[in-house]
Amino acid sequence: MTWQARYRTKIRQHARVGCRCYGCGGIPTDSDHLFIIRGMGGHDEPELQEDWNIAHLCNACNVARREETAVRAALDKLWRYGPEYIEAKVAALPRKVRPALPKHYFKALELYHQGKKPWRDF
Ligand SMILES: [Zn+2]
């Protein structure tokens, strides 16, 4: 499949599920690991490809790597899955994956405990 065809397929997939870029609200074209990047040695564990760990972003927001974008994505995952689920997922990762949650997770967790919703409040 050519690069362009793959890109178009991805845009269609995202449009179908109705998700939007966590940074700008636009059409997402990229998928980024949100909490846990990948295993040491560059292994990408299948667990890390699951929805709780994947943020859909447009390319500009993916490249910009703004903390606000990551916090909004994390907040959305917290409302969707709950902190217990996410933390249990991270704790159960294979040992070669560093099981540490990033700063944007804890910022989002604080907002979650305050009842703040992604897009509406942050
Ligand atoms: Zn964007």
Labels describing this entry:
122 residues, mainly alpha, 2 strands, 7% strand, binds zinc ion
Order of helices and strands: HEEHHHH
Unreliable stretches (pLDDT < 50, length at least 5) are none
Principal-axis shape: globular
Tell me the total number of β-strands.
Answer: 2
- Biggest sheet strand order reads 1-2
Helix content: 40-55%
Calculate the mean pLDDT score and round it: 86
Total DSSP helices: 5
User: What is the strand content?
Assistant: 5-15%
Separation of termini? 38 Å
How does the helix and strand content classify structurally?
A: mainly alpha
Output the radius of gyration. 15 Å
The small molecules bound here are: zinc ion
The main sheet comes to: 2 strands, antiparallel
Total discrete domains: 1
Q: Could you outline the blueprint of secondary structure elements for this entry?
A:
Blueprint: H1 3-17, E1 30-33, E2 54-57, H2 59-64, H3 67-81, H4 83-91, H5 103-113
Antiparallel strand pairs: 1-2
Helix pairs in contact: 3-4, 3-5
This protein binds zinc ion.
